[in-house]
TrEMBL record:
Coiled coil (UniProt feature): none
UniProt-listed SUPFAM superfamilies: CNF1/YfiH-like putative cysteine hydrolases
The family this protein is said to belong to: Belongs to the purine nucleoside phosphorylase YfiH/LACC1 family.
CDD domains, per the entry: YfiH
Pfam families the UniProt entry points to: Cu-oxidase_4
Protein name according to UniProt: Purine nucleoside phosphorylase
Gene Ontology molecular function: copper ion binding; hydrolase activity; S-methyl-5-thioadenosine phosphorylase activity
PANTHER family in the cross-refs: PURINE NUCLEOSIDE PHOSPHORYLASE LACC1, UNCHARACTERIZED PROTEIN YFIH
Domain of life the protein comes from: Bacteria
Catalytic activity: adenosine + H2O + H(+) = inosine + NH4(+); inosine + phosphate = alpha-D-ribose 1-phosphate + hypoxanthine; adenosine + phosphate = alpha-D-ribose 1-phosphate + adenine; S-methyl-5'-thioadenosine + phosphate = 5-(methylsulfanyl)-alpha-D-ribose 1-phosphate + adenine
Keywords in alphabetical order: Hydrolase, Metal-binding, Transferase, Zinc
Length: 240
């Protein structure tokens, strides 16, 4: 597997999307203030495989929050202080980076708008998925029209949380349930799915088929396994 893609989103002819596998090497872009970008060529190769132009790529700042920004062809190539990007403009690829966190792909097939968001446990706790759905309101969307795919990310089989984090999440996370925790593990996908459903997304329009990153270290980078924050994967979506 070179690129993971949602079978549900692949049926939408004007959408290009995917998460890069290890075959491209690390496609993680640097955080603000970090040094040399050592993976720029890897990202360009990934985008070229999708038929996208790396020079037009817009990436989110990955602040582990719930802010989503609307962008267009005049936006900067990096949008800080956000974890999500949305656009109705063609040929503006939107991207985020992950290495266990959930990459969320959003498409409105009716008004032809796309978005991508990054949600780790802090993003899930602050309702990133809910805020992303709300951002579509500004583009004239109805939640019932949206199609969402959760990309490769750590599953409840591998995501271990200590009691303090469990208590933090239970206290502050929208639509969380105690059953999302089992034997020291947490199911972020279940929480996000519930948040999406509560926001009006139809269950049939949520694709949960992506593999667990920690179950497939041969295909994906997993911080839970490697503890190497310099490695990661790019997830991109574009209207074409």
């Amino acid at each position: 597997m070179e690129i993971w893609q949602s079978e549900r989103l692949k049926k939408i002819s004007w959408v290009v999307h995917g998460t890069a596998s290890r075959n491209f090497g690390s496609t993680r872009y640097p955080n603000a203030g970090e040094g040399q970008d050592a993976t720029e060529e890897n990202r360009a190769a990934f985008l070229l495989t999708l038929g996208l132009n790396a020079a037009q790529l817009v990436v989110s700042g990955n602040e582990h929050g719930n802010h989503i920004v609307s962008v267009d062809g005049k936006s900067p190539r990096r949008v800080g202080h956000c974890d999500g990007l949305i656009t109705g403009v063609s040929n503006v690829p939107l991207a985020t980076k992950t290495a266990d966190c959930l990459p969320l792909f959003f498409v409105d097939p009716t008004v032809r708008t796309v978005a991508v968001a990054h949600a780790g446990w802090k993003g899930v706790a602050s309702g990133m998925a809910i805020e992303a759905v709300r951002a579509f309101f500004g583009h004239g969307s109805r939640p019932s029209d949206l199609v969402v795919a959760i990309g490769p990310s750590i599953g409840p089989c591998h995501y271990v949380v200590h009691d303090e984090r469990r208590d933090q999440m239970l206290e502050r996370t929208p639509f969380i349930e105690p059953s999302d925790f089992h034997a020291g593990h947490v199911d972020l996908r279940a929480i996000v799915t519930r948040q999406l459903s509560a926001s009006g997304i139809l269950p049939a329009n949520i694709d949960l088929s992506a593999p667990c990153t920690a179950c497939h270290p041969d295909l994906f980078f997993s911080y839970a396994l490697s503890r190497d924050s310099s490695e990661g994967m790019l997830s991109v979506i574009s209207k074409v």
